[in-house]
Amino acid sequence: MGDWLYDHLFAEESIYRAEVVVSELITNALRHGEMGSRPIEVRIYLDEGMRAVVEVIDASDREPVIRGEDLGSLDGRGLAMLDVLVRELGWVPLRGGGKSVWVVLDAVMEAESGCAGVVCRTRTVQRDV
To answer: Is residue 46 part of a domain?
Structure first.
C-alpha cells in the first residue's frame, strides 16, 4: 500500500500515517470479523476529488463502534485513533453480508507539500556489507 501511495506521488509522511491506518483496519477485521465465509479484502483508490480512500471488507455484519476512553483497557482504542488520523471514517453493510469499513486518508500529495517531484523522493536502503 505504501508503494501505491508512493507511486501516486503522496508525501512520505502521509505514506507512514496511511500504513498505520491500514494496519489498524486489517487488525480490526482479523479480530472482529467473521473468518471463513469471506476473505478480508483491502482496496485503495483515488476518489473523484483525488483523495486516497482505503476500504477493508470483512464477513462481519457488526457495526464498528468507537469506544469511550478507558485507560484501564488493553484494547479498544483503534477506531478512536483512526478518527484522529484520517479525514473521514465510515462503514457500510454489504448486500449479501459483510461490511466495508472505509477511510479517506488525510494524505498530502507532494505538490501540496512544497516538494517538486524527485527532489522529495529519498529512501534509505540498508545493505548488508
So the answer is: yes
Domain that holds residue 28: 2-120
Phi, psi of 105 (to 5 degrees): -70, 145
Q: C-alpha cell of 29?
A: 477485521
Cα–Cα distance measured from residue 118 to residue 123, given in angstroms and rounded to the nearest whole number: 11
> Measured in whole angstroms, how far is the alpha carbon of residue 73 from the centre of its chain?
23
Domain count, the chain: 1
DSSP bridge pairs for 10: 109
- Alpha-carbon dihedral 40, 62, 30, 108, rounded to 10 degrees: 70
Of 47-56, 63-72, 104-113, which one has max mean pLDDT? 47-56
| Number of residues that make up the chain | 129
CB 25 within 8 A of CB 101: yes
Q: What is the pTM of this model?
A: 0.74
